[in-house]
Protein backbone atom coordinates (compact mmCIF):
# COMPACT_ATOMS: atom_id res chain seq x y z
CA UNK A 1 0.00 0.00 0.00
CA UNK A 2 1.30 3.44 -0.89
CA UNK A 3 1.70 6.00 1.89
CA UNK A 4 -0.66 8.94 1.90
CA UNK A 5 0.90 11.67 -0.24
CA UNK A 6 1.78 14.98 1.30
CA UNK A 7 0.51 18.04 -0.45
CA UNK A 8 2.15 21.41 -0.72
CA UNK A 9 0.10 24.45 0.19
CA UNK A 10 -2.94 22.61 1.53
CA UNK A 11 -5.95 24.90 1.78
CA UNK A 12 -6.35 26.36 5.24
CA UNK A 13 -9.92 27.43 4.59
CA UNK A 14 -12.99 25.25 4.98
CA UNK A 15 -14.63 27.18 2.15
CA UNK A 16 -15.54 24.61 -0.55
CA UNK A 17 -14.56 27.04 -3.32
CA UNK A 18 -11.06 27.36 -1.86
CA UNK A 19 -10.71 23.60 -1.49
CA UNK A 20 -11.91 22.99 -5.07
CA UNK A 21 -9.56 25.68 -6.41
CA UNK A 22 -6.66 24.14 -4.50
CA UNK A 23 -7.51 20.65 -5.84
CA UNK A 24 -7.58 21.95 -9.42
CA UNK A 25 -4.28 23.78 -8.91
CA UNK A 26 -2.73 20.62 -7.44
CA UNK A 27 -3.97 18.54 -10.39
CA UNK A 28 -2.54 21.15 -12.79
CA UNK A 29 0.79 21.14 -10.96
CA UNK A 30 1.01 17.37 -11.24
CA UNK A 31 0.15 17.44 -14.95
CA UNK A 32 2.83 20.09 -15.51
CA UNK A 33 5.40 18.07 -13.55
CA UNK A 34 4.51 14.93 -15.51
CA UNK A 35 4.92 16.83 -18.77
CA UNK A 36 8.31 18.26 -17.82
CA UNK A 37 9.94 15.07 -16.60
CA UNK A 38 11.34 12.52 -19.00
CA UNK A 39 8.48 10.35 -20.13
CA UNK A 40 7.57 8.48 -16.98
CA UNK A 41 4.36 6.62 -17.71
CA UNK A 42 3.56 6.00 -14.04
CA UNK A 43 3.84 9.69 -13.12
CA UNK A 44 1.80 10.76 -16.14
CA UNK A 45 -0.90 8.16 -15.56
CA UNK A 46 -1.09 9.13 -11.88
CA UNK A 47 -1.53 12.81 -12.73
CA UNK A 48 -4.17 12.04 -15.35
CA UNK A 49 -6.05 9.69 -13.02
CA UNK A 50 -6.04 12.29 -10.25
CA UNK A 51 -7.47 14.85 -12.68
CA UNK A 52 -10.09 12.35 -13.83
CA UNK A 53 -11.17 11.57 -10.24
CA UNK A 54 -11.42 15.26 -9.41
CA UNK A 55 -13.65 16.01 -12.40
CA UNK A 56 -15.76 12.91 -11.67
CA UNK A 57 -16.41 14.36 -8.21
CA UNK A 58 -17.48 17.67 -9.78
CA UNK A 59 -19.69 15.81 -12.25
CA UNK A 60 -21.37 13.75 -9.51
CA UNK A 61 -21.92 16.85 -7.37
CA UNK A 62 -23.90 18.45 -10.20
CA UNK A 63 -26.41 15.57 -10.13
CA UNK A 64 -27.22 15.95 -6.43
CA UNK A 65 -30.65 17.38 -5.64
CA UNK A 66 -29.18 19.73 -3.05
CA UNK A 67 -26.38 20.92 -5.31
CA UNK A 68 -27.22 24.58 -4.77
CA UNK A 69 -26.12 25.74 -8.22
CA UNK A 70 -28.67 27.01 -10.74
CA UNK A 71 -29.49 24.71 -13.66
CA UNK A 72 -27.39 26.71 -16.17
CA UNK A 73 -24.28 26.37 -14.00
CA UNK A 74 -24.93 22.66 -13.48
CA UNK A 75 -25.29 22.19 -17.22
CA UNK A 76 -22.10 24.11 -17.96
CA UNK A 77 -20.04 22.21 -15.38
CA UNK A 78 -21.42 18.89 -16.63
CA UNK A 79 -20.55 19.80 -20.23
CA UNK A 80 -17.06 20.90 -19.23
CA UNK A 81 -16.52 17.71 -17.24
CA UNK A 82 -17.45 15.64 -20.31
CA UNK A 83 -14.84 17.53 -22.34
CA UNK A 84 -12.28 16.88 -19.59
CA UNK A 85 -13.26 13.17 -19.55
CA UNK A 86 -12.71 12.83 -23.30
CA UNK A 87 -9.41 14.69 -23.21
CA UNK A 88 -8.16 12.75 -20.19
CA UNK A 89 -9.05 9.39 -21.75
CA UNK A 90 -7.26 10.37 -24.95
CA UNK A 91 -4.13 11.27 -22.96
CA UNK A 92 -4.32 8.03 -20.94
CA UNK A 93 -4.34 6.14 -24.23
CA UNK A 94 -1.61 8.01 -26.13
CA UNK A 95 0.44 9.33 -23.15
CA UNK A 96 1.36 12.37 -25.27
CA UNK A 97 2.71 14.98 -22.85
CA UNK A 98 2.67 17.60 -25.60
CA UNK A 99 -1.15 17.55 -25.46
CA UNK A 100 -1.62 18.22 -21.74
CA UNK A 101 -2.09 21.98 -22.13
CA UNK A 102 -5.86 21.71 -22.69
CA UNK A 103 -6.38 19.99 -19.34
CA UNK A 104 -3.96 22.30 -17.54
CA UNK A 105 -5.63 25.37 -19.02
CA UNK A 106 -9.13 24.22 -18.05
CA UNK A 107 -8.04 23.45 -14.50
CA UNK A 108 -6.29 26.79 -14.12
CA UNK A 109 -9.21 28.75 -15.55
CA UNK A 110 -11.77 27.10 -13.29
CA UNK A 111 -9.48 27.45 -10.24
CA UNK A 112 -9.03 31.13 -11.04
CA UNK A 113 -12.79 31.60 -11.25
CA UNK A 114 -13.27 29.83 -7.93
CA UNK A 115 -10.77 32.05 -6.15
CA UNK A 116 -12.14 35.30 -7.60
CA UNK A 117 -14.21 37.16 -5.06
CA UNK A 118 -16.96 39.51 -6.21
CA UNK A 119 -16.45 43.09 -5.14
CA UNK A 120 -18.32 43.85 -1.96
CA UNK A 121 -20.93 46.57 -2.42
CA UNK A 122 -19.96 49.93 -0.96
CA UNK A 123 -22.12 50.88 2.01
CA UNK A 124 -25.01 53.06 0.90
CA UNK A 125 -24.87 51.86 -2.71
CA UNK A 126 -27.15 49.16 -4.08
CA UNK A 127 -25.67 45.79 -4.93
CA UNK A 128 -25.14 45.17 -8.66
CA UNK A 129 -28.09 43.64 -10.49
CA UNK A 130 -27.81 39.92 -11.22
CA UNK A 131 -26.88 38.94 -14.75
CA UNK A 132 -29.57 37.67 -17.06
CA UNK A 133 -29.73 33.90 -17.34
CA UNK A 134 -28.31 32.36 -20.48
CA UNK A 135 -29.81 29.34 -22.17
CA UNK A 136 -27.80 26.11 -21.74
CA UNK A 137 -25.51 25.19 -24.60
CA UNK A 138 -26.78 22.68 -27.12
CA UNK A 139 -24.86 19.39 -27.25
CA UNK A 140 -22.15 19.28 -29.92
CA UNK A 141 -23.11 17.90 -33.30
CA UNK A 142 -20.61 15.85 -35.28
CA UNK A 143 -19.18 17.42 -38.40
CA UNK A 144 -19.80 15.74 -41.78
CA UNK A 145 -16.37 14.07 -41.55
CA UNK A 146 -17.45 12.36 -38.32
CA UNK A 147 -15.12 14.39 -36.10
CA UNK A 148 -16.72 16.26 -33.20
CA UNK A 149 -16.42 20.03 -33.52
CA UNK A 150 -14.01 21.84 -31.22
CA UNK A 151 -15.81 24.20 -28.91
CA UNK A 152 -14.74 26.54 -26.24
CA UNK A 153 -16.96 26.28 -23.21
CA UNK A 154 -17.72 29.14 -20.89
CA UNK A 155 -18.68 28.32 -17.36
CA UNK A 156 -19.55 30.45 -14.42
CA UNK A 157 -19.18 28.92 -11.01
Terminal-residue CA separation: 36 Å
The CATH architecture designation of the domain at 16-115 is Up-down Bundle
What integer value in Å does the Rg equal?
A: 18 Å
| Counted beta strands | 0
Calculate the mean pLDDT score and round it: 80
What's the order of the H and E elements?
A: HHHH
Indicate the proportion of strand residues.
Answer: under 5%
CATH class of the domain at 16-115: Mainly Alpha
In the predicted model, the low-confidence regions spanning at least 5 consecutive residues are: none
Keywords:
157 residues, mainly alpha, Four Helix Bundle (Hemerythrin (Met), subunit A), 4 helices, Flagellar protein FlaF, FlaF
Describe the structure in brief:
It contains four helices and no strands. It has 157 residues and is an all-alpha fold. Helix 1 (16-36) runs antiparallel to helix 2.
Itemize the secondary structure elements and their pairings.
Elements: H1 16-36, H2 41-62, H3 71-94, H4 101-115
Helix pairs in contact: 1-2, 1-4, 2-3
Give an overview in words.
Pfam families: FlaF. Keywords: Plasmid. This is Flagellar protein FlaF. One of its GO terms (biological process) is bacterial-type flagellum organization. InterPro entries: FlaF. There is one protein chain. The chain is mainly α and 157 residues long. It has a domain of 100 residues: Up-down Bundle (Four Helix Bundle (Hemerythrin (Met), subunit A)), CATH 1.20.120. The protein is built from four helices and no strands. Helix 1 runs antiparallel to helix 2, helix 1 runs antiparallel to helix 4 and helix 2 runs antiparallel to helix 3. The model has no long low-confidence stretch (mean pLDDT 80).
